[in-house]
Design a protein that fits this description.
It is built from 15 helices and 9 strands. By secondary structure, it is α/β, with parallel strands linked by helices. The strands form 2 sheets. Strands 5-4-3-6-7-9-8 form a 7-stranded mixed β-sheet, sandwiched between helices. A two-stranded antiparallel ribbon has the order 1-2.
């Protein structure tokens, strides 16, 4: 397979310019911070914006070299931002972005900043946000197909990363089409897997698994992953591109349910694009996090954040391995 990075990066970074435009044209953030630097809490108070999307916006601006974060968490403008994005500069580029200030994606991100509620999914007028739209068959089919084609690229890399800790029975939590369970099952003939998915995506997963000829080794359990007990007797639980759709409280709930259902010696696998622990990038991750923040209740997280949640549950990250398209898998176990 040739390298499809550019193809996927454009799609995952499409909302970044909207967030940058909000910072420049709606908040005049750089002029304000040039006069009075501030930490995240202070910025939220000053601009009447919410912590989750503000965190994503500031991470993007740091990753782009427009803000720098001090050891005390205070954000300062960089020389580049001072030269081009602060009022009074002879090279003031703010009018260049003011011309697109009313672009729909820009106004969507501004609304998310102010309300912390995901915007409607791009599409027909009146389309619901992603979480609600996934309950409808037509949207679920379209979105799951999009994630399936990406999963076919990511899956083999994930399987390769698990070569030294091959699962015996894998529970693929929120597994979508089953692309990741299929990749792992193909790589390890002794592995059996179950995809835990809600309706109507469960039917899509059954169809995809059957088409792959793996119906005898991969089954599907229809369930809301937030409700009720999970099936037991699995030595590995996989969250592949799942946690980033949910806020911290919901991520903690999911991890708690996983830990409760895993046997001694079981492993918890988190496969996702991860932010740097100091929230300085990587740029691709910071850009993708904007898209996630706009249309879901989540954002991208760092290994340190996920590690802290797991530590509260008695689990530790024991390994991290790259997979594909800027993703990594975290492998955690009890103790």
């Amino acid at each position: 397979m040739t390298d499809p990075t550019a193809i996927y990066r454009y799609r995952e970074s499409l909302a970044a310019v909207d967030a940058l435009t909000v910072a420049i044209a709606h908040l005049d953030l750089f002029t304000a911070l040039a006069a009075a630097p501030g930490d995240l809490a202070g910025i939220c108070q000053r601009f009447s914006i919410q912590p989750r999307p503000a965190h994503t916006l500031c991470t993007l601006l740091v990753a782009n070299g427009l803000l720098r974060r001090g050891d005390d968490g205070v954000l300062h403008v960089t020389d580049t931002a001072r030269e081009f994005l602060v009022a009074g500069s002879p090279f003031d580029a703010r009018p260049y972005y003011a011309s697109i200030a009313e672009k729909p994606g820009v106004t969507d991100f501004l609304t998310v900043l102010r309300t912390d509620r995901p915007a409607n999914w791009p599409g027909e007028e009146g389309e619901a946000d992603w979480h609600a739209a996934m309950r409808t068959e037509a949207f679920a089919e379209s979105f799951t197909a999009a994630m399936d084609c990406r999963g076919r690229v990511l899956g083999p890399g994930l399987a390769q990363a698990l070569a030294d800790c091959t699962p015996r029975r894998l529970l693929d939590v929120g597994g979508g089409s089953g692309a990741y369970a299929i990749a792992v099952a193909r790589a390890f003939p002794s592995c059996r897997a179950t995809v835990l998915e809600a309706s109507p995506v469960d039917a899509i997963a059954r169809r995809t698994i059957a088409a792959a000829g793996l119906g005898g080794r991969i089954d599907v359990v229809t369930a809301d992953m937030f409700l009720g007990p999970w099936p037991e007797d699995y030595d590995a639980h996989l969250f592949s591109n799942v946690l980033h759709d949910w806020n911290e409280a919901d991520c903690r709930r999911l991890l708690e349910k996983s830990v409760a259902a895993l046997p001694d010696g079981g492993r918890l696998l988190v496969h996702d694009m991860l932010l740097d622990d100091d929230m300085s990038g990587p740029l691709w991750a910071a850009e993708y996090s904007v898209l996630l923040t706009t249309v879901t209740q989540g954002r991208l997280y760092s290994a340190a954040e996920i590690g802290d949640w797991l530590a509260d549950l008695g689990f530790n990250i024991v390994a991290r391995a790259p997979t594909a398209l800027g993703r990594s898998v975290l492998i955690a176990s009890r103790g």
